[in-house]
């Protein structure tokens, strides 16, 4: 359709042919080949499109706008004609648009509203190597649409780097373009550096400006580091420009285009500049070696930004930016020895991310179990269950995991379900818009401003009203822009009155119901500023924070990690005061029976709870038997079986049964009476014998022999006596007790004289297991241990006899133990 000469041109015929014959095709082409900005235009005239359009998914808003601009430029048009884009709260499309570049879940929304994708003949998933959550979800939904509704729908998966096994996993042909990347010289530091990344990057940028031609692209992990580096470079003879996702569109365009005054550029960017974007004039890359990503902790249900080392594939993408238009240089601010130690690639986002948005989308799609779709990597079941819990708390899913009317409402808001639930609050929509915008953007107040979100709302409203504010004006502009978009959606006017702290807290509670918090001084006598969250975690405010004295909080931003090894609490960064009465609607009365390890007793109460928070309690007189058994069993598991007293008889029974179980693993009827086995089944065997036990002393007094006997149903007791008898009769007629140790031979401790004439070692276990004889002197002291009595009589006996004759002269010590009668006493007493 166009007469471009981008490197991708060489494979356009192959791509056309593959898409004509297959519904799913994979294209791999290096950075700068034109796969994003050229190939889609060449496919607009394909006959299998039949006049329908193309939708291309880009993982980032900056790239979506930039790619749309390049595509439109390739046609000699403005964006909004044949080529348009849609991102969150921004779109440029028209009736003439046939190629849409979309992101931020726009494709998923379109699929939900129109599963057949009417008017669309091809969906392109660009930069698929990033394995974003949206891209994986889109691919899974598209494959189902192809199989059930649209066998004529084509899907094209594109990337600069791909898992070699991807085409095979998708069952799709692979088209590879060699591209035309210019050579890039990669330079390392001699040793790994020490210091702040912004200092290191700024120093290297200065050196690069002096030594190399062209513009410089530097990678830093986040906005804070970009601002710090920009300050350090404020005096260089170049235009220093930031580039990150929340930057206004006009400023993003300045970073991407040549400087109007012809000056060199230094672009300080986050990882959004790794792919898709071509920044005109860049010949030098400075890679700080760090990347900031969102990490989700399923144990706490919290997400937080984590800064880590760049992966090897991302570092390769970054270096490639220097060779898009001419030969270049990439400076890596780490040593060459460290390079192979970097992670090869980031795991797919679906394996790490908060899955609440995805889980809600799947419920709307009618597939509550993700495993029912064709995924490249099935979402982890544990994370899905955590997400379902969050959505149930928000009222978005019912107990069976089905979508509720509230869940359907949440999907009308292009944001996380938590924030969407906040926006559905009807009481004060203007305040909801301000709070939602502040939660989604960076903190506009400087460090040390306290944790109260109410202060941020006040700062926003003061700035909006033209007053002075301590906040960062650039951030406040972004917050206001987002708040305005929410107000437009909610059809409300701005409110610049002083915000009510309790109203702000109530809105946070809607978004984070598991983060309601009560002061621990009120519940546990601890110091000010320390709180218990309704999700069960402990958390603390910074020392001296203005919210430290409130009784209840609604927490918005929280670091789940402990502040120190000695203090197992998270840190509260952003919260608002909460009227405890706000918890009443979600509270419920529950019977609580728990073990108090400090007093060693059961505590039984009727409690009105909001999650883990106890709002009110009363003594529970009628103690439910099942709850009491569960609490006592929990106490034994926590403190150990030593809470119980096994009598000699009970312990002997356990040892005998465990011995037989070890000897005869093929006989599966024998119960597991080991410590681990008993702890696993406490409720079953201990519960019926607890009686009225309520304390540590009561547990210690229990007679456990009947409980152990009950674990051996008929005919096992008789079988036990047969295989592991309690006693053996020796030649003198004495019945001697056996001592059993599971996994070892049982011990028979008997006076040597009582075995005169006995040739074979006694045995148990149906004759399979000889006992371990502890041969005793007349005083009962062991003189020999053996499992081979015959050998003892023939050899060792004579050495033992010398010693025993001198020490016990009145006792018989015959020369021939084989023929001497067994005896219990001295020569006079005989047998």
From TrEMBL:
GO terms for molecular function: helicase activity. It comes from Deinococcus aquaticus. NCBIfam families: DEAH_box_HrpB. The keyword GTP-binding does not apply. Residues 16-164 form the Helicase ATP-binding domain. The keyword Metal-binding does not apply. Residues 809-831 are annotated as: Disordered. The gene is hrpB. Keywords: ATP-binding, Helicase, Hydrolase, Nucleotide-binding. This is ATP-dependent helicase HrpB. Residues 201-366 form the Helicase C-terminal domain. Residues 809-818 have a biased composition (Basic and acidic residues).
